[in-house]
Write a structure and sequence with these properties.
10 helices; 5-stranded antiparallel sheet; Beta-Lactamase; about 300 residues; about 40% helix; disordered C terminus; elongated; alpha+beta
């Protein structure tokens, strides 16, 4: 058993004065000192950064006073001056003569800690984006149940959907259609993109399979494109009006389609719904018709 531990773990044995009496091969590999270099030296002064030495000495004291087991994760020094992070399990060890020593078994967890820190930072960045994005974002399971929903999604739906299924929130035809998209994204592990309409608002939707806690879920990202569609429609209408004006050669026919605007000449009103967006105006300059757009704002 000791051979197996030696292979993967640092083993350091020291006495009540913190003097090292044993130092295994893994300790040599991790810290850089050979066994013969460290025997008899103070373990805290050797491998512990100065700010931590008092803390480490307190751990050793607790073991000496009878605390059978202690656990800690702390920074340590290597021979070449690097700082590494080790996880330590400390207990009392007695030799064949009954003399008590402190036994510390350690693992170098530097890379593990770095990965955990990066993961935490990544999660924090994701959470900030998730919470503050104006885009509607949610995570649903394969049954169409909301696992998470950001504030924009809650506002867009009109209620907090977490814990509810699509069929509990939307009309049945809408719920079934979206559930089909979810299952397609999960089964094919691919991006599903589609547009739909809800309550007079138009959305473009992206469904993507993601792994959450080992299980496949569907990431839903939706963007309200209602205003963009209105703008696109307005631009199409303006182009059509412009082309119509160019095609009209009979000025009397043109006059029937336009309205007078004081100081601006003869203008064609551009409307969408109940809102006027602007006017296309016509002037005669040196008997040549000039066309220009006039914004209402």
């Amino acid at each position: 058993m000791r051979k197996g531990i030696d292979q993967f773990s640092t083993i350091i044995v020291f006495d009540e004065d913190l003097r090292i009496v044993d130092w295994n091969g893994k300790a040599e590999e991790i810290f850089g000192w050979k066994r013969e270099e460290v025997l008899g030296k103070n373990v805290a002064e050797l491998i512990d950064p100065e700010p931590l030495r008092e803390k480490i000495q307190q751990v050793a004291k607790r073991v000496a006073e009878g605390e059978i087991y202690t656990h800690s994760i702390n920074d340590n020094l290597t021979k070449d001056g690097r700082i590494i992070t080790c996880e330590w399990h400390n207990t009392v060890y007695r030799d064949a003569k009954g003399r008590a020593y402190r036994l510390s078994i350690g693992l170098d967890v530097t890379e593990k800690i770095k990965m955990e820190r990066k993961l935490k930072e990544s999660e924090e960045r994701y959470r900030a984006i998730f919470m503050h994005s104006p885009v509607l974002i949610a995570i649903l399971d394969k049954e169409g149940r909301f696992i998470e929903a950001n504030p924009a999604m809650v506002k867009g739906i009109g209620e907090n959907p977490v814990g509810k299924t699509l069929s509990e929130i939307f009309p049945m035809d809408v719920a079934e259609r979206r559930l089909r998209h979810i299952r397609k994204a999960l089964e094919e592990d691919s991006l599903v993109e589609f547009e739909d309409e809800r309550g007079g608002r138009h959305f473009i939707n992206f469904y993507l399979s993601v792994k959450v806690k080992g299980e496949r879920h569907c990431l839903v990202i939706a963007q309200d494109i209602t205003e963009l569609q209105k703008l696109a429609k307005l631009l199409r209408e303006m182009v059509e009006v412009n082309e119509a004006i160019v095609r009209i050669h009979d000025h009397e026919k043109l006059v029937k389609k336009i309205v007078e605007r004081p100081g601006e000449g003869e203008c064609l009103e551009i409307r969408y719904g109940e809102k006027t967006y602007g006017f296309l105006c016509v002037k005669n300059v040196d008997e040549e018709m000039k066309i220009f757009a006039k914004d209402t704002h």
